[in-house]
Amino acid sequence: MDYLGAERKKAEFDVEDMKIVWAGSIHAHQLSDRISKLVANDPAFRKDDRTMLARKELFKNTLRKATYAWKLINELQLSEEEASKVRFYVDEPAFTDLHWGMFVPAIKGQGTDEQQKKWLSLSYKMKIIGCYAQTELGHGSNVQGLETTATFDPKTDEFIIDSPTLTSSKWWPGGLGKVSTHAVVYARLITGGQDYGVHGFIVQLRSLEDHNPLPGITVGDIGMKFGNGAYNTMDNGVLRFDHVRIPRDQMLMRVSQVTREGKFIESDVPRQLLYGTMVYVRKTIVMDASYALSKAVCIATRYSAVRRQFGSQNGGPETQVIDYKTQQSRLFPLLASAYAFRFVGEWLSWLYTDVTQRLQAKDYSTLPEAHACTAGLKSLTTTATADGIEECRKLCGGHGYLCTSGLPELYAVYVPACTYEGDNIVLMLQVARFLMKTVSQLGSGKQPVGTIAYMKRIEHLMQSHSDVQKPQDWLKPSSVLEAFEARAARMSVACAKNLSKFSNQEEGFAQLSADLVEAAVAHCQLIVVSKFIEKLQQDIPGNGVKQQLEVLSGVYSLFLLHKHQGDFLATGCITPKQASLANEQLRALYSKVRPNAISLVDSFNYTDHFLGSILGRYDGNVYPNLYEAAWKDPLNDSVVPDGYHDYIRPLLKQQLVPAKL
Amino acid sequence: MDYLGAERKKAEFDVEDMKIVWAGSIHAHQLSDRISKLVANDPAFRKDDRTMLARKELFKNTLRKATYAWKLINELQLSEEEASKVRFYVDEPAFTDLHWGMFVPAIKGQGTDEQQKKWLSLSYKMKIIGCYAQTELGHGSNVQGLETTATFDPKTDEFIIDSPTLTSSKWWPGGLGKVSTHAVVYARLITGGQDYGVHGFIVQLRSLEDHNPLPGITVGDIGMKFGNGAYNTMDNGVLRFDHVRIPRDQMLMRVSQVTREGKFIESDVPRQLLYGTMVYVRKTIVMDASYALSKAVCIATRYSAVRRQFGSQNGGPETQVIDYKTQQSRLFPLLASAYAFRFVGEWLSWLYTDVTQRLQAKDYSTLPEAHACTAGLKSLTTTATADGIEECRKLCGGHGYLCTSGLPELYAVYVPACTYEGDNIVLMLQVARFLMKTVSQLGSGKQPVGTIAYMKRIEHLMQSHSDVQKPQDWLKPSSVLEAFEARAARMSVACAKNLSKFSNQEEGFAQLSADLVEAAVAHCQLIVVSKFIEKLQQDIPGNGVKQQLEVLSGVYSLFLLHKHQGDFLATGCITPKQASLANEQLRALYSKVRPNAISLVDSFNYTDHFLGSILGRYDGNVYPNLYEAAWKDPLNDSVVPDGYHDYIRPLLKQQLVPAKL
Ligand SMILES: Cc1cc2nc3c(=O)[nH]c(=O)nc-3n(C[C@H](O)[C@H](O)[C@H](O)COP(=O)(O)OP(=O)(O)OC[C@H]3O[C@@H](n4cnc5c(N)ncnc54)[C@H](O)[C@@H]3O)c2cc1C
Ligand SMILES: Cc1cc2nc3c(=O)[nH]c(=O)nc-3n(C[C@H](O)[C@H](O)[C@H](O)COP(=O)(O)OP(=O)(O)OC[C@H]3O[C@@H](n4cnc5c(N)ncnc54)[C@H](O)[C@@H]3O)c2cc1C
Ligand SMILES: [Ca+2]
């Protein structure tokens, strides 16, 4: 029985068409649909017991799944695209993520042609398993401060990799702790007594015969992380080198090289080439944000339609909690954000292609902007997603706190995205630097490009007044854009003005950094708002689909405007009256979302397996399944718990013996 | 060695005196100090392995600790106050929390004298163990909608307790799943065919001989909850009744009774008496918020002084991350909040005494205000604390994600405080109702009292202008109070105006509920701000102690003002210029906090055991201890992991067999 059937009938758009929009194309939709079902229907990928497993069991189970998935990929002769979807829908962090997502790309990006030939062919067959060993106990954000050394020994034509201090121990790399046979290790290159900074080296860690660490290598897991299940399926590791020797040709030499004589030379391949990879990785993170947030929103939306509380009239059913405006005002902006992040992720795919093409044509002019924009979007979307998942959990009341809701694990597994690939605050400070540079160059003839192009109209934006007069005016994309542009521009300019009061710019930047981060956030929100609006300028087929997206775009921007109205008002971009009209329009939009809410989350096309939540079940049959699941907890193996005779009974019987328990 | 010694030398106040302020009195300080050390020094209370234990082991271990603590309490003949401190510092949720915190108070509050005599004497000796069984699978917030029935059978002078539907299953009560022998069960009282709503009943659940559930009772644990360790030490339970009979005198009959004949009568004891308990429980929750937040802040502050990243000059040490203004602007408001919540908790103790005295004098006039204010403060402080703990975790970068940081477990164990004892949004809506009532009665002669007394000056507050002209003006308590009062008053009045546009008030309240919650938050923030300021009007001994608290009070209010500047600006309470001056002053205050930060968290006087965090160690010796702890993970029991031969080796050797794994 479909307990949400009545909800589904209310939809004012074609869900099948929206599924295609969400997936990005018919092809992508069909692919996702096929692979997600393949995974969901295979009992080998069961995950509903994950949060109950102790670490060792959990980890062994992940090894089983990863190997099984690989076998499946080979047996079914899946393409690279299909294989990566299999890993995605298996939905369990594993060493394979780092092997495919970091080790292989690092070699592709930084290895010479010969190096690629040798190492990639081994990697593609998984004859070796690799990880990405950059972070150390003492250094994460500050990569240039890494302490591991790679000293060239011209006598033997080798590098000696060493961990000179405790804090130089590699710490965090995923897949390192128990699985990887190899790593790309980042270390300070020292040759001829000189330190040439941090470079990457391919280092074998474990014997390919018996998996024991090679001589001079100490390696292990760094221990439990946040949550049950969650990221504990991953063996984030610690690694120490005691003068480990590797051949010279295992330094990744695409960009710089060390000769047989120990001479350090920079190749003519520009360093900027490495930026391509970075844009690619960040694009993936933004897409992952939209997936994670959409999962949480799907769970909270369905459960909010199932859950009823208060408001029964004459003994009739109570009110679905999704009908409470407070619930809507917390939930619907997150639903809109999931779509917004999905579209900005799509746009980042375009940016990646654009950057790649320009790099090939040796056009580096857009790189600073691409760098700032991807850094900011990574930071913005991951922060919002982490907060959003947790809000979805709270929206489910007490039951959201149960692991069977899926939300605790989703949160715990997601949050490190705020930290890895750049701490979100550190990234926003980079955006702020770019903004300050842009402002300082205004009028210098250097034209702002891409997402910062609005700064060209700085004079207008500094003194424009919003033309909004009634709530509906806030539905006009031009009014929304103008307000967000003016706010971002004015906040940047205000920071620049304050900065100019300092004689020492660095000191000023440090003092004002909290304000600078706020300006950077304003800039990044503008990007997301504008990319959503641009998306709507495209042709979007399907009955009612575009209309729904227009509503969601409105929700996204007006929710942000309301949340940050202090920015808009302080900079005088809008009046208090206009702020209040925006809020009024926002309320009206929530009512438009309401009948479509369930179908808007159905459009994600997630299987119950992928969602992993009893509260989020497609059929809405929550209560009997919650009840059934409870009995599976190990504590329920026996009616009288282990420990009764030793602890509870003596307590009740007042027979506590003074001996140490 | 004390790696934070240099930091401690910077303090501009007397830490020992601040410890007394934090504890509340010399007596309280000495008590906490003594008991926390007693617990910390007893290896039986070790908890550093907690996040690694599987559920059964974890739970058995909790039983062991709880029983051991009880033995200790008896052997050392500890007072009730001391005993509760022991439980507090053992720092592990257990059935005892519910026994002492809910079961006993429920009987005290709702039982007749005879009932108290009988059941409390059993409870005080723990000859029975009780829990509080209110929430059901289908009803939490809406207590009046509970479905469990207690039908009086005049033939046998018994109540028949029954779970007529699946959703009527009791679900969530702590201590119920595996331990409790008894419960206070809330059920609909039915007698003479009529439903008299929800009342409490004492029901025995398990045999006192062999702990088996009594006939007609199905009971078990509801399964894993958020996080490792955390609240999984608690057996939140599910409970079903199949026509279970209890004697009539097990209905809690202080306020209403059922006679031998089955007649329902309300006693002359006013229902309001129950409010006293509620104020008491909420006071405890607010105090717990300050403890939880202060633990997180202590960890993040110490680690931020240990952690260095970037900014090394000429090979010198890098910058302590606590010196970054972004770090300060995230951390110091939380430090200030911990103190703010501590003082508002202290004030709630006074309120509790006041309410109790008034109840005895049959003065119910302040009850609505006390009800609204405690509901709002519970909601405000628990939401801020949950968010704050997580922010502290992020402030620790990658290492905050490790369980050895203590922060993941602290978060996971804390967050349900946002949900239990009233969902935080539902509570804020109650505050909003009270505010709307107050506004509607303005001018009616009914004088607003207590925390809402500022509404008496509504005419002034509606049109006042802040007199702030320079940053330092924001240090004047009167300016701060005036701004917060004006903001709260104007937001309430704006809501009331919008409400009046609806012909149906209930409909209007529902439509505007998101705005109403914002007004309620503004009111509650004002309470915290004003109680902090009132605290500073007291005599506070100790070198520099008061000065530090003044700085923190400033940080707390100006941080809120900055965060919510949209409210202040939209209501015209302050100008954009004044908002910017506040921000400027806030920055200056951060610099004042900086040298005192470590000592301000030392003042919490937490043992390393209680903190449970390697990052937060008193001695700051973080790295060697992180490194050592890693090796204790079960995954490191063997160098080559379990699963190598089955999964990793076949993968590497390309020897995957097509058979199902
Ligand atoms: C689950 C997980 C998986 C990971 N996987 C890998 C992996 O596979 N390989 C790998 O090499 N690494 C990995 N990492 C490490 C990760 O990349 C780092 O944790 C990350 O770069 C953050 O660095 P940090 O931990 O040193 O944070 P820190 O830099 O120590 O941050 C601490 C605090 O200082 C602040 N701060 C730091 N610098 C500044 C500044 N200049 N200005 C203002 N504030 C500042 C930060 O905002 C933060 O609040 C992983 C981490 C996690 C949590
Ligand atoms: C760890 C833990 C321990 C607990 N211990 C106990 C215990 O010992 N004994 C016991 O009896 N219970 C216990 N509980 C249950 C707890 O009291 C309830 O979970 C709590 O009251 C919230 O109710 P709910 O779960 O029904 O949430 P719901 O009411 O279902 O909330 C779901 C959503 O609906 C919204 N909502 C609900 N009503 C309204 C409304 N009128 N207007 C607007 N929005 C609304 C909420 O804001 C929330 O977003 C415990 C719960 C937890 C998580
Ligand atoms: Ca506790």
UniProtKB/TrEMBL annotation, chains A, B:
It is found in: Peroxisome. This is Acyl-coenzyme A oxidase. GO terms for molecular function: acyl-CoA oxidase activity; FAD binding; fatty acid binding. Signal peptide: none annotated. InterPro entries: ACOX_C_alpha1, Acyl-CoA_ox_N, Acyl-CoA_Oxase/DH_mid-dom, Acyl-CoA_Oxase/DH_mid-dom_sf, Acyl-CoA_oxidase, Acyl-CoA_oxidase_C, AcylCo_DH-like_C, AcylCoA_DH/ox_N_sf. One of its GO terms (biological process) is fatty acid beta-oxidation using acyl-CoA oxidase. Belongs to the acyl-CoA oxidase family. It comes from the Eukaryota. Pfam families: ACOX, ACOX_C_alpha1, Acyl-CoA_dh_M, Acyl-CoA_ox_N. The active site is at residue 421. FAD binds at residues 135, 174. Keywords: FAD, Fatty acid metabolism, Flavoprotein, Lipid metabolism, Oxidoreductase, Peroxisome.
